[in-house]
Design brief:
mainly alpha, Arc Repressor Mutant, subunit A, two-stranded antiparallel sheet, 147 residues, 2 strands, single chain, globular
């Protein structure tokens, strides 16, 4: 079953994946989407979720910080640690952005019956709820595909 899910997920990602935006690379957009809207996230969590070395994540964070999308601050739970948080500009970008091509997704969903759409969304909600606690997708941003 996991192999079938992996195959289907990969196909969905290729079909509904949105190409890079003019001002942000796909990696930068993914990073923004993985930063919680309210609380910060440690750099190590970002790098492990995105599957990139900590040094690469750090460079992306620095670039996004210079452009006003992110900032680094002390973790309120542990002053020794730095957390990455979205700025207002970053929050606005995430709220208005999706890593998916929402028009293509909407067109595909229209091809399903209302009952199929309800069943699909209910199944995805149950799968999300069954995911292990603390998984990277539970961080509070709006969209989390492909990472």
């Amino acid at each position: 079953m996991p192999n079938r899910f992996d195959i289907l997920y990969s196909r969905l990602w290729r079909v509904f994946f949105k190409p890079e935006a003019a001002d942000l690379s796909q990696h930068e957009r993914q990073l923004l989407h993985h930063v919680p809207a309210v609380r910060g996230i440690p750099l190590g969590d970002v790098s492990s979720h995105l599957g990139i070395p900590k040094s690469s994540a750090s460079e992306q964070v620095k670039s996004l910080e210079r452009r006003g999308f992110l900032r680094r601050r002390r973790d309120p739970d542990d002053e020794r640690r730095l957390s990455i948080v979205l700025t207002r500009k970053g929050q606005e970008r995430v709220a208005s952005d999706s890593v998916l091509d929402l028009d293509r997704l909407a067109a595909a969903l229209k091809k399903l019956s209302p009952m199929e759409r309800v069943a699909l969304l209910a199944g995805l909600e149950r799968l999300t709820a069954a995911a292990p606690e603390g998984s990277a997708s539970g961080s509070g941003s709006r969209t989390r595909a492909g990472g």
